[in-house]
């Protein structure tokens, strides 16, 4: 049986690593943090475009085979899973290509209150005060205001993902898209994961939500951001006070378009 591919995308700091850690408990599944396939996909698209003088010899069918081959080659015999979830924030901006390459594939976009995403990143930066982060190109300067601005602009870590999410949400492949709220995942994990299984048409599996395991300490350390992919053993919704100045927090508090039914004309499933 051909291996099934699905995709985890959406906003950063919104539960994608936690979702992957949970799904990986199922022996039929493989899921992890963001990997290299998204970047390789974009690079290959560029190299096969008109900017390469030899692109005249490449047909669209060859492009499809080469791009699909990235997944088949990367997830080779080293991975025994029948179902693979590849994670990358760029997938929301590639819904059309993914639909052609993987007609049965689904995209699960993790979302969260944008103010709390900015807050979560700022908290990480403050926790690792002596380690400049790759999130800000290892630059040690800046303020909470410049960091929030950099994250939110169109090329920033949050802004790019937010725009890609809206492109998918209002695009033509919404039958392949589900939005999973971070707030639901941490407060009602049983309901959240049950919805994922229904969406991808897989038989339910008895997950252990009090014994979650995931580790990427070496990656996080090299990125200058220890704790970036930390997943707690037990899923618990935690309340705390934001570290952001009030004006920065308020700037993003109305950006959750997915909560307004009037802004969901295609009826995207939001859990």
Give a count of the beta strands, DSSP E runs of length 2 or more: 6
The CATH superfamily name is: P-loop containing nucleotide triphosphate hydrolases
Major sheet size, sense and barrel closure: 6 strands, parallel
What order do the helices and strands follow?
A: EHEHHEHEHHHEHHHHE
Query: Please, how many domains?
Result: 1
Q: How large, in whole angstroms, is the Cα Rg?
A: 19 Å
User: Which word captures the global form?
Assistant: globular
* First-to-last CA distance: 30 Å
Average pLDDT figure: 91
Instruction: Give the strand line-up of the largest sheet.
Output: 2-3-1-4-5-6
The fraction of residues in strands falls at 5-15%
CATH architecture tag:
3-Layer(aba) Sandwich
Q: List the total number of helices.
A: 11
Percent helix, as a range, is 25-40%
Which structural class fits the helix and strand makeup? Answer: alpha/beta
Low-confidence stretches: none
What name does CATH use for the topology? Rossmann fold
CATH class descriptor: Alpha Beta
């Amino acid at each position: 049986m051909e291996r099934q591919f699905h995709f985890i995308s959406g906003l950063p700091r919104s539960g994608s690593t936690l979702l992957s850690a949970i799904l990986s408990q199922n022996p039929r599944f493989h899921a992890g943090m963001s990997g290299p396939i998204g970047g390789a996909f974009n690079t290959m698209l560029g190299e096969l475009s008109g900017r390469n003088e030899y692109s005249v010899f490449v047909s669209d069918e060859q492009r499809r085979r080469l791009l699909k081959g990235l997944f088949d080659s990367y997830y080779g015999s080293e991975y025994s899973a029948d179902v693979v979830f590849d994670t990358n924030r760029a997938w929301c901006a590639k819904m059309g290509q993914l639909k052609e390459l993987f007609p049965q594939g689904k995209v699960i976009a993790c979302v969260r209150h944008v103010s709390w995403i900015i807050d979560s990143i700022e908290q990480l930066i403050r926790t690792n005060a002596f380690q400049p982060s790759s999130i800000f190109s290892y630059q040690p300067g800046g303020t909470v205001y410049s960091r929030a601005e950099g994250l939110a602009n169109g090329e920033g870590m949050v802004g790019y993902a937010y725009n890609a999410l809206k492109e998918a949400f209002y695009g033509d492949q919404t039958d392949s898209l589900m939005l999973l709220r971070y707030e639901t995942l941490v407060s009602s994990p049983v309901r959240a994961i049950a919805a994922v299984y229904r969406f991808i048409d897989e038989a339910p599996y008895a997950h252990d939500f009090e014994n979650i395991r995931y580790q990427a300490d070496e990656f996080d350390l090299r990125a200058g951001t220890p704790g970036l992919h930390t997943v707690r053993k037990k899923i618990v919704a935690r309340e705390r006070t934001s570290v952001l100045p009030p004006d920065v927090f308020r700037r993003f508090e109305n950006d959750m378009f997915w909560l307004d039914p009037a802004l969901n004309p295609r009826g995207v499933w939001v859990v």
